[in-house]
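Standup notes
- DV: blocked on the single-chain target, sequence here:
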Amino acid sequence: MTPVEANNPAAEWQTARTLYPLYSALAREFVIDLPAFGDLESEGDAPSPQSIEQAKQWFLGVDRQIQVHQLRQFLQTTTLTSESALSALLRHHIGKEERTDSDRDKIDFLLVQFFSHRAPPKLDDTELDMQYVARVLHPVLADTDLTVPEWLKPLDALILEANRCPSLNTLFTSRIIERGRKIKSAAGANFFTPVAMVAFTRFSFLMRRVFFRLMHQDLNAILDGLRELEQRGVTTLDCRKAQFSAEEPVERLRMICHSWKVMFQAEYSSGQALAMLVDLRTAVDVALAKSGQGAIPVTGGTGKARAAAASSAVKAPATDAPEFEVSSGVAPWNSDDGAGK
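- DV (later): unblocked, structure below
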């Protein structure tokens, strides 16, 4: 339950009026044919009970047409996103009597977005305990006992493992993101308990930080590697695994990386680009090794993990976890914070 009083017609109608322009804009962007519902525009703040019920059914029908990835992409690119809009979306989805897996994934994403909007930009990971996350989410989640049940405790171990990853390649091949999603999927109805939603918000927010720190690190490693290769007299690289040519000019690769720095600061980044980034990092490391002096050492992680990351020529799978393609409010690449707001 949310802090909003249940079965409050005025609150339900206000939420519906807040959501209507968002849903309409989303439908236009993805060419979704929505049925008209003029009552939300014509009845003002004093709707009839019939209009409230019709609005409820209208939104339930529309929700079935809107996919999770569409909601995610829309909210990361539209100017209509605000704390009040996110709050209305969360009240709407959390307040449903029956919730689907799609509702679960939408709520999971929306909670992290809501937390990101409200949390300060310079927030240290050590401050992000359950109590802190619950306080930030209080406008949309009721007070609850924050004693973490046994089935949620593996999330902390996954966060620790992710923080030891020296590269995106390692993060993807370790399947940490997929293992976290498996815990979420196995939760069933328990996901919608306040303590679980707080725990998953904390997990996703911290994983997001790891994700963007490693993107930043990989891009810098590629640029440093390209600079080193030029100094060794290398002018082209075999980058076919990264979907480039067998003799890709180093100068062109440098320009692509600088354009990626701009793209990855945008509010939505495609999974394909991330896969190319991982494969290009591998191609540069292989070229450095072949040129005689080896790859530039990777910072972070254990020595064994660094060696594996530097020598691996295995293509890392593109993550199928689009919740980590979000960079809304991510600190600039030259920031020491490395965290997404």
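- Follow-up: The two ends are 26 Å apart (CA to CA).
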